Every structure is written in C-alpha cells, then in structure tokens.
Amino acid sequence: MSSMSRRSFVGLSSGVLAATGLVLAGCGSSSSSSSSSDSSSDSGFSKSSYTIATDTTFAPFEFTDSSGNFVGIDVDILAKAAELTGFKYELNSLGFDAAVAALESNQADGVIAGMSITDERKQKYDFSDPYYDSYVCMAAKAGSGISGYEDLNGKTVAAKTGTMGATCAEELSSKYGFTLTYFDDSSLMYQDVLTGNSVACFEDYPVMSYGITQGNGLEVVTEEKDNYSTPYGFAVMKGKNADLLSAFNSGLQQMKDSGDYDSIVDKYLKG
Ligand code: GLN
User: Fold this and answer.
1) Which of 5, 77, 82, 170 would give a disulfide with 13, using CB separation of 3.0 to 4.6 Å?
2) Contact 205, 231 (CB under 8 A)
C-alpha cells in the first residue's frame, strides 16, 4: 500500500473532546506524542501515549465516512475505553495485515481491527475480552449464479491477506479447485469480484452484511458458522502492554454495564 494512504488519528482521552466525537485527523506521520519509552508519571500508564494500529476499510468497525472522518465501532470503543480509563493513544489506519505486522515489529502497542481471537493467534498475542461475535462467509456478485463452493472450480477467488477468511479460503481451495488472489484491503477485494476477475471472496459476515446493506453489489453465498466463528478482541503482543490491555478490558466492561457499548453498536448498525 502506498504511504499516502496511511493515516493517523490522535485519540483524545479527555472526556469532553472524546464525547463530542472530535478526532484530530492528519495524513502521514503525526508524531506529536508517540515516544515509545516514555514513562508517564501522572496517568499511571507505562507510556504517555500508545500507538494503536487498525484496518483501513472494514465497515462498520473502521472506515472513512462520507464527511471524511475515520469512524466505526472499533474506533468508538477504543476512544471510550481511553476516556474511561485515562490512557492516551494515536490510531494508525494501516490495513489488517500491516497492523498485525506493526504490532509484531514493535511499531504498534496494540491492534483493534475486527481481529478474530483464534487459538493460533493466542500463542503470539494477548487478547482483550471479546467484544463482537463474527464468522466467515463467502460472497459473490449479486445475481452471478454462484451458489456454493462447487461453482468455484477452475475459477479465481479473492481473499484478504492474513485474515481468517483467507485461512478458510486456503483450506477450501484445493478441495474445490479454485485459485486465490490476495488483497490488503476489503474494498479492493470486493471490487475484484464486481469486475469479474474473481467470482467470489471470503469476508467476515458482519462486515459483508453491512456492506450489502450499503449497496456494495454482493450477496452472501455460504456461511462458515462452525469452523470459522470467533469473536473480535483487542490485541497486544504476548506479555507486553499489560496495563493497556487491562485498561481496555476495564473500559469495555464499564461500557457494557452502562449501555454505552450498545449505543456505539446501534449508532452504526441502526443508523
Ligand atoms: N476478523 C478477521 C481476522 O481477524 C478479519 C479482520 C480484518 O480484515 N480487519 O482475520
């Protein structure tokens, strides 16, 4: 992905600004507060500001709205957790695979990106409590006549690099005889299906169904509820940033108890 498409957002944990939804957005390297070894004496956190990485287009969890604001369920949950518990952060919209790579290379302290909590990932990352249930589905262009995996034989199918949907697709590809093509970005993956280069794609169901209601031109063909059903969690590297993780969990619990969690989800899913 080009460096131009990377965007940073400085999260404000002070109540008033966060509550009014004001987010400072800037392109490129915003680095006003991201010294990684700061010890923050007043906040009680090990860093004065955490760097959190996220996806680019994964609505309704993170996406740029029609006014150009970077919004979504993940964005709001993170902002609310920070507001409630007092940590500061900068949110970097990198793409899913790049966000995980940033975490692994110590360029990010945490990832919130509709990231599925899997047993394999739990070997490497510590996850927060789950905050949203999800599973993988396959979608095709609406009206294309693709009605199951049998129809994929000899065809090209799109998947998103590093995702659970890609793992699912990889497992099915040899059995059903299709070839995979990879994208870093969900919207580019959908585009490949709409143009007919790929006959289908694998995506998380909540994201696909939201996209369909927004008129993305696709339809769900299969739902992988048994083997590819896992909730989303906020991730840090195993054994690192425990204070950030526990603050996130504490904020999440408070949001669930107060009804703020439901309000955030409803804001995106019920308009
Ligand atoms: N939930 C999927 C995963 O964790 C996809 C996440 C995403 O594309 N942002 O693999």
Assistant:
1) 82
2) no
